[in-house]
Amino acid sequence: MPEDKKRDPMPPPDATPEEIGEFWDTHSLADYWDEIQEVEFKVNLKPKPNLIHVEHEIVEQINAHATEQGISVEKLVNLWLREKLQRIDTNQPTHIP
Fold it and tell me: What tens-digit pLDDT sequence spans the chain (97 residues)?
Protein backbone atom coordinates (compact mmCIF):
# COMPACT_ATOMS: atom_id res chain seq x y z
CA MET A 1 0.00 0.00 0.00
CA PRO A 2 1.46 3.41 -0.86
CA GLU A 3 2.74 5.38 2.13
CA ASP A 4 0.48 8.37 1.40
CA LYS A 5 -2.75 6.30 1.35
CA LYS A 6 -4.60 6.03 4.66
CA ARG A 7 -5.86 2.58 5.62
CA ASP A 8 -8.86 1.61 7.70
CA PRO A 9 -8.11 0.41 11.24
CA MET A 10 -8.23 -3.33 11.79
CA PRO A 11 -11.24 -4.65 13.73
CA PRO A 12 -10.86 -4.33 17.51
CA PRO A 13 -10.19 -7.42 19.66
CA ASP A 14 -13.82 -7.51 20.79
CA ALA A 15 -15.19 -7.51 17.21
CA THR A 16 -17.66 -10.26 16.35
CA PRO A 17 -16.69 -12.97 13.86
CA GLU A 18 -19.15 -11.38 11.43
CA GLU A 19 -17.50 -7.96 11.75
CA ILE A 20 -14.05 -9.48 11.27
CA GLY A 21 -15.26 -11.41 8.23
CA GLU A 22 -16.82 -8.31 6.68
CA PHE A 23 -13.58 -6.38 7.19
CA TRP A 24 -11.37 -9.03 5.56
CA ASP A 25 -13.85 -9.50 2.72
CA THR A 26 -12.99 -5.96 1.61
CA HIS A 27 -9.36 -5.60 2.73
CA SER A 28 -6.07 -7.30 1.89
CA LEU A 29 -3.84 -8.82 4.54
CA ALA A 30 -0.87 -7.54 2.53
CA ASP A 31 -1.86 -3.99 3.48
CA TYR A 32 -1.77 -4.86 7.21
CA TRP A 33 1.27 -7.14 7.35
CA ASP A 34 3.11 -4.76 9.71
CA GLU A 35 0.28 -5.13 12.28
CA ILE A 36 0.16 -8.92 12.22
CA GLN A 37 1.80 -11.03 14.90
CA GLU A 38 2.46 -14.75 14.99
CA VAL A 39 0.40 -16.75 17.46
CA GLU A 40 0.34 -20.37 18.55
CA PHE A 41 -2.68 -22.29 19.74
CA LYS A 42 -3.74 -25.88 20.25
CA VAL A 43 -6.81 -27.42 18.72
CA ASN A 44 -8.47 -30.38 20.36
CA LEU A 45 -10.52 -32.09 17.67
CA LYS A 46 -12.91 -34.62 19.10
CA PRO A 47 -15.11 -36.73 16.89
CA LYS A 48 -18.69 -35.61 16.75
CA PRO A 49 -20.95 -38.27 18.27
CA ASN A 50 -23.45 -39.92 15.97
CA LEU A 51 -26.73 -40.20 17.81
CA ILE A 52 -29.36 -42.73 16.87
CA HIS A 53 -32.50 -43.83 18.64
CA VAL A 54 -32.36 -47.36 20.01
CA GLU A 55 -35.34 -49.06 21.62
CA HIS A 56 -35.12 -49.17 25.41
CA GLU A 57 -35.31 -52.97 25.59
CA ILE A 58 -32.43 -53.30 23.13
CA VAL A 59 -30.30 -50.85 25.12
CA GLU A 60 -30.89 -52.90 28.27
CA GLN A 61 -29.75 -56.07 26.50
CA ILE A 62 -26.69 -54.35 25.06
CA ASN A 63 -25.77 -52.98 28.49
CA ALA A 64 -26.03 -56.47 29.98
CA HIS A 65 -23.83 -58.02 27.24
CA ALA A 66 -21.25 -55.23 27.54
CA THR A 67 -21.08 -55.71 31.32
CA GLU A 68 -20.67 -59.48 30.89
CA GLN A 69 -17.81 -58.95 28.45
CA GLY A 70 -16.21 -56.16 30.50
CA ILE A 71 -16.24 -53.63 27.67
CA SER A 72 -18.02 -50.36 27.04
CA VAL A 73 -21.40 -50.26 25.36
CA GLU A 74 -19.90 -48.13 22.57
CA LYS A 75 -17.17 -50.70 21.87
CA LEU A 76 -19.63 -53.59 21.86
CA VAL A 77 -22.06 -51.83 19.52
CA ASN A 78 -19.23 -50.91 17.14
CA LEU A 79 -17.94 -54.51 17.17
CA TRP A 80 -21.41 -55.88 16.43
CA LEU A 81 -22.09 -53.38 13.68
CA ARG A 82 -18.69 -54.04 12.10
CA GLU A 83 -19.40 -57.81 12.15
CA LYS A 84 -22.82 -57.26 10.59
CA LEU A 85 -21.38 -55.06 7.84
CA GLN A 86 -18.64 -57.60 7.10
CA ARG A 87 -21.29 -60.31 6.68
CA ILE A 88 -23.27 -58.07 4.35
CA ASP A 89 -20.13 -57.21 2.37
CA THR A 90 -19.26 -60.89 1.94
CA ASN A 91 -22.84 -61.70 0.93
CA GLN A 92 -23.42 -63.99 3.88
CA PRO A 93 -27.11 -64.46 4.64
CA THR A 94 -28.44 -61.99 7.15
CA HIS A 95 -31.77 -61.74 8.87
CA ILE A 96 -33.35 -58.30 8.86
CA PRO A 97 -36.91 -58.27 10.20
Answer: 555 578 999 999 999 999 999 999 999 999 999 988 899 989 888 888 889 999 999 999 999 999 999 999 999 999 999 999 999 888 766 565 5
Question: CA 87 to CA 81: how far, in whole Å?
Answer: 10
* Contact of 74 with 65, CB cutoff 8 Å: no
For 36-66, letters b (16+ CB in 10 Å) and e give eeeeeeeeeeeeeeeeeeeeeeeeeebeeeb
Contact between residue 12 and residue 5 where contact means Cβ atoms under 8 Å apart: no
pTM: 0.47
Domain boundaries, the chain: 1-41, 43-97
Give Cβ neighbours of residue 77 (< 8 Å, ≥ 6 apart).
Answer: 62
| Packing angle, helices 56-69 and 73-89, rounded to 10 | 100
